[in-house]
Amino acid sequence: MMQRYVVRAGAALIGGWLLAAPAAQAQTGGVGIGTSTVEPSAALEVKSASKGLLPPRMDEAARNLIGNPAPGLTIFNTTSGVLNVWNGTSWQAYLAESIPAGLYPPNTYAPVAFAYTGAPQTYTVPAGVTQLRVDMAGAGGIVNGPFYRGGNGGRLQAQLTVTPGEVLTIYVGGMATGYDSGSAGYNGAANGGGGATDIRRGGGALAGRVLVAGGGGGGGQNSAGGCGGGTQACSGASSGSGIGGSAGGGAGGGQTGPAAGGSSSINQPGQPGGLGVGGAGNTGGGGGGGGYYGGGGGGYDGIAGAGGGGGSSFALAGSTTAVVHSPGTQVGNGYVRLGPLLPAPVLDGSNIVNLRGLGDHTATQNLDLATYQLVGNGGSQGLRISSTGNVGIGSSAPTARLEVDGFTRLGANAPAIKTLELAGTLPGGQGQAFVAHGLDENKILSVTAIATAGANYIPPGYTLNSGVLYGVYINNDNVVLQTGNSISSGTAYGKPVRILIIYRD
C-alpha cells in the first residue's frame, strides 16, 4: 500500500528523475535514486555525493499566483532567496544559512547519541548553547546462575547547564560478559554487575561527574540482582537456605556513603560498594552495579550466592534541572542522548515571507497604554515626533518642542483657545495707528503689546517713566495703537510694537 501511494502521489515530482536517472530503483515500500538500498523509513531516498535536490524556482509574485496550494507544497523563492512551504493557510520560509554570527550554524544542533564502546567519549558544546537535554541509562546486570537475572539499569533524564565550547567526557556503562570471577560491566561494576553511565566535566576524573545513571546489580546463583538507578538503588535478593542460613543481598547504592555488602552465615559476606564502584560478590554472589555509589556485593551461604545491589543515580545540584529518575528500566548496555536546547532566535525580517514594514499601513485598533489609550480618528495628521525630538499635534513638521496646530483647551470647562502674534508701529506723533487682525472680534479674549524703546520694552499704560505712554485696544477689524501728546508719549513715537491676541474657538 505504501509503494502504490508513493508512486501515485509523487509521480509528478519523481517521474522525470526516474526517466533521467537509470540508477533509480523501486524498492519495497520506497523509491531510491542513486541507491539500491532504500532506508526502511523513507518513501523516497536520493543519494549523491556531487548533486543536490532542486525544487521549482520562482519569484514571490509567481508563487502568489499558485492556485489552491496543497499543505506541504515547497518552492524556492528567488525574491527572498529561501525555501517557502505552504502550511495550509500561508507561505512560511525556512531560515536561510546566512544566520547572524553566534547563532545557529547549520547542521550543528542535531541530537547526538552515544552507545557503549568500552572507552571514554567526548562531546563539544556548540556555540550559543547553554542548556542540554539529557537522556541516559546505566547498563543492566548479567545473569549469575540459571534462575535469576541481574537487575536492570536506571534511566536518568535532566537538563544540564553548559558553557559553549566546553568539552564533556561521556562514559557509557557496559553489561558484564561473565559472572563470579568473570568480567565486570564497564565503568564501576563488580562481577556480573552493570556499569554506570555518567557525564563528566573538566576531564575524566571521578570528581567531575555531573550526571550518573546507575547500573543494575549482578544476579546471584539463585537470587536476583537489585535494580540500578534512583537516588537510592535496590538491594539484591538474599539467597535460599544454605549452611546455617541464607546469605544477604548487597545493599543498593545511595547518595551519602558506601553500600553494605551482603551478609553471610558462614562468614563469607559480599564486599561493600564505594564511590563510583560496586562491591564484589562472594562465591556465587552477584557483584554490585556501578553508580554514583556502587551497590554492595552479594554474600555466600555455603550453597548459593545472593544478588548484588544496584548502583545509584546522581544529578549535580546547581548544574541540573528537570531531573527525572526511572530505576530499573534498562536491559543490556547503557546509552547517552544529548539534545541542545536553543535560545529563542533573533528574528531577521529578510527571512520572513509577506512581512509588511511598520508604518506603511493603517492600524486596526487603538494602542493600549495601560490605563489610557492612544486613539486615532482617521485625520491626515495626528501625533508626530520629529527627528530633532519636537512633538507636533496636527503638525507635519513641528518647529518647537510642542507644536499644536489647532485650538488648545486647558481644562474641561476652559475655552478652546489660540494665539496670534502681529507686528505694528506706534504713531509718529499724537494719534492712532491700525493693524488689521483678520479675526472675528467677538471671539477675541485679550490683546496686549510691548513696544521697543532703546534697551527698554514697554507695555501699554506704563507711566513710571515719562514719555512712553501708549494704549492698545480692538476696534472692529483692527488693533488700535494710540499715543498722547509729546509730554506723555513723545519718547514712544514711531517705536515698533509686538502684539499678542488670545482668541477662542
Kindly state the mean pLDDT as a whole number? 83
Large-scale geometry: elongated
Low-confidence stretches: 1-27, 95-107
Strand order within the widest beta sheet:
8-17-10-11-16
Q: What structural category characterises the helix and strand content?
A: mainly beta
C-alpha Rg, in Å?
A: 45 Å
Beta-strand content: 25-35%
Helix fraction by DSSP (H/I, runs of at least 4) = under 10%
Number of domains: 4
Largest sheet: 5 strands, antiparallel
State the end-to-end CA separation. 82 Å
| Number of helices, counting only DSSP H or I runs of 4 residues or more | 4
**Strand tally, please?**
30
Subcellular location: Cell membrane
Protein name: receptor protein-tyrosine kinase
Pfam families: ALK_LTK_GRD (PF12810)
Enzyme class: transferase
Detailed description of the structure:
This protein has four domains: 2-93, no CATH class; 110-342, no CATH class; 380-405, no CATH class; 416-504, Sandwich (Immunoglobulin-like). The protein is mostly beta strands and 505 residues long. The protein is built from four helices and 30 strands. Residues 1-27 and 95-107 have low confidence and may be disordered. The strands form eight sheets. The chain has a five-stranded antiparallel β-sheet, with no helix packed on it. Strands 9-12-13-14-15 form a five-stranded antiparallel β-sheet, with no helix packed on it. The protein has helices spanning 2-9, 11-20, 60-64, 486-489; strands spanning 25-27, 30-33, 44-46, 57-58, 74-77, 82-86, 91-93, 112-115, 121-124, 131-137, 153-161, 167-171, 197-201, 209-213, 314-315, 320-330, 335-341, 367-369, 372-374, 383-385, 391-393, 402-404, 408-409, 416-425, 431-436, 444-453, 456-458, 470-475, 478-483, 496-504.
